[in-house]
Amino acid sequence: EKDGYDHFMLKEIAEQPKAVADTLLGRIGADGRLLLDQMRLSDEELREMDKVVVIACGTAYHAGMVAKYAIEHWTRVPCEVELASEFRYRDPVVGRRTLVVAISQSGETMDTLMALRYAREQGARVLAICNTNGATIPRESDAVFYTYAGPEVAVASTKAFLTQLIACYLVGLYLGQVRGTKWGDEVRSVVRDLSDLPSKVDQVLETMEPVRALARELSTATSVLFVGRHVGFPVALEGALKLKELAYMHAEGFAAAELKHGPIALIEDGVPVVVVVPSPRGRSVLHDKIVSNIQEIRARGARTIVIAEEGDEAVVPYADHIVRVPECPTLLQPVVATVPLQVFACEMASARGFDVDQPRNLAKSVTVE
Ligand code: F6R
């Protein structure tokens, strides 16, 4: 049951630190190496792969977009991500040396299932990342990596998404480990950073009251835009999807630099724009670029809501509202940066009087193509 929460979604948002910790549990050895042999793909097979293709729908697709950045960076194996519904209708190049990763919370999504069947017919090896033990997608795959989010009841996916991210990181790092690419200090430190994530998500959850207040204040807005770069881009898409499905509000996510190629025309006085800002440490070019994007948006009258790392002072002059998240390496930041967007959408839906757990027209798993 709801354990005293008003909605399953709120309960599931609150369960995220545990969901993340459970998904990491038993998968990192004492020496920092990953233990994923339960996946049933041999090291030899993994070494032979020359391409990774991630297929998924909706929120799971956003996890797949993050996977692409992480897998290519850590393994140097080319990685594509595609909407499952588009995949098999375009004659994709897949074969024996393609690792197809099918991400699905329910394990029953028909678009994803049909795509994975197609991939297997072409000779590809399929790894399912799934939250539901024994569901059709893992049963029909060559290998499976289970996420341990526990049952997700609210239609909008929250805790499953965070665990899908964790699964993608672990699979990417494992591939790096097995292939011996980039398995050095950088990757070892990422493994340590993964273990810190449950407490970081907890920290975010403790500071959500201002986000709720902001959602109530903006509940009559007609449109909200979300922008990000790099892995902040899928986070922006996810923030927009949550708002559409729960608050029935026009919302769109963009890669920040694409704004100037058209969508910036949408920005008029007072339009809320949520900006996901990467860490100023590490790849600081990325950070500097987005700070100038915020400046451009603000100059056109947008109301800027900035998700930024603690201690990032560069964003302060251009932010109407700042939501702070703990320090995190860029690739892992989606795990903390998505949480405020979930809370924002959930509160917005309540403020507008909609059913948070059962949004109109939606079902928990989409079993038609
Ligand atoms: C959004 C949402 C959907 C699902 C999508 C895939 O909050 O829940 O977009 O992510 O229908 O579902 P699964 O992961 O079960 O394949």
Description:
It is a single chain. The chain has 369 residues and is α/β, with parallel strands linked by helices. It is built from 13 helices and ten strands. Strand 8, helix 12 and strand 9 (303-309) form a beta-alpha-beta unit. Helix 4 packs parallel to helix 8 (159-179), helix 4 runs antiparallel to helix 11 and helix 11 (232-247) packs parallel to helix 13 (333-351). The model has no long low-confidence stretch (mean pLDDT 93). The chain binds fructose -6-phosphate. Fructose -6-phosphate (F6R) binds next to helix 4 and helix 11. One of its GO terms (biological process) is carbohydrate metabolic process.
Task: List the SSEs and their pairings.
Blueprint: H1 8-14, H2 16-24, H3 43-48, E1 51-56, H4 58-75, E2 79-83, H5 84-87, E3 98-104, H6 110-121, E4 125-130, H7 136-140, E5 143-146, H8 159-179, H9 185-206, H10 209-217, E6 223-228, H11 232-247, E7 250-255, E8 272-276, H12 284-299, E9 303-309, E10 321-325, H13 333-351
Parallel strand pairs: 1-2, 1-3, 3-4, 4-5, 6-7, 6-8, 8-9, 9-10
Helix pairs in contact: 2-8, 2-9, 4-8, 4-11, 9-13, 10-13, 11-13
The structure holds fructose -6-phosphate.
Residues 57-60, 104-106, 109, 112, 156-157, 241, 245, 365-366 line the site of fructose -6-phosphate.
